[in-house]
Amino acid sequence: MSPSELHDRALLLHGPKRNAILTLADVQQYGADSFGDPDYIRIYGMAPKEWYSRGIRMLGRTAVECTRDALGDRIGRDIADVAARLPSRARSIVVDPFAGSCNTLYWILRHVPDSAGIAFELDPQVHALTETNIANLDRTIDLINGDFHSLLKRVDVPPGRDLIAFVAPPWGTALDETLGLDLRRTTPPITDIVWRIASRYHDRRIIFAAQVYENVNPESLVELRLLLDWSELRVYDLNVEGQNHGILLGTRGWRP
After folding, report:
1. What is the pLDDT of the chain when averaged over all its residues?
2. Non-local CB neighbours of 244 within 8 Å, separated by 6+ positions
3. pLDDT at residue 136 above 90?
4. At what angle do helices 190-200 and 218-225 cross, to 10 degrees?
5. Which of 22, 167, 208, 215 has the fewest CB neighbours in a 10 Å radius?
6. Domains contained in the chain, CATH given
7. 188 preceded by cis ω (within 30°)?
8. Which residues pair with 117 in a beta bridge?
9. Tens digit of pLDDT for each residue in 27-63?
C-alpha cells in the first residue's frame, strides 16, 4: 500500500471513526483518497450512493475490512464452479463464521443456485448494523450474534444437504509482507477453523474457500492442504502485483 493508503486505513481502523457509523461523504472520501475512486466501497451490488440511500450503514473498521463487490463476485463465481460439480443437486448450506458485512456471503449465494446462508458475527455492534443492512436484500441470510466456536455445534445441516464454508478470519499479525500470510496465525488460525468444521460435519460433502493473500507462507499452506481431499489456489488480479487477494478452494468427503 502507498503511504496515503496506509494513513487512511489506520485512521479508520484505529482512529475516532473506528467504531463510528460513516457518512456517505466519509465513505466516498476514503475511496477517493485511498484508491482514486469515490465508489470503491461497492457492496451488495451497489455503489455507495445507492446503498447509502437504501439505509445501509457501515462502521469505519468495516469499510476497511469488508470484501468489496469486485472481489466478492470473483470468489462467488469460483465457489459456484466447484459446487456445480457436486454429485448431488441438493440445496447447499453456505456458512460464514466471520460475517462482518456479509458481502462475500451475499455474492456466494448469488452465484450458487438454490443456496441458503448462515453467518456468525461476534461483535454486537457489527451484528446489529449488518442485520439491518441485509434485511431487504434479495438473498436470505440467517445472521447469528456470537462466537462460531460455541454456536457451530448447534447448527444442523439437514440430511442430504451439502456444505460450503467461507473461511476468512481476521488476519491480525499473520501477514508479513516478506514471509507472506501465515494461515496458522490468523485469529483464530484458518487451519483450526477448517479442522473444526470438517470434524463437526464429517459425514457431509464440504467445499471450503479460505481467503488468502497473494504471498502465502508455504509451510502453512501445506498444513492446510493436508486437511483437504482436493485443493486449488486462485489469486485475483484486482490490485497491483504482490497485493492481491485470493482463495484456497478445497473439499472434504469428495473430489471434483
Report:
1. 89
2. 213, 214, 235, 236, 237, 238
3. no
4. 0
5. 215
6. 3-65 (no CATH), 69-252 (3.40.50.150)
7. yes
8. 94, 141
9. 999 899 888 899 999 999 999 999 999 999 999 989 8
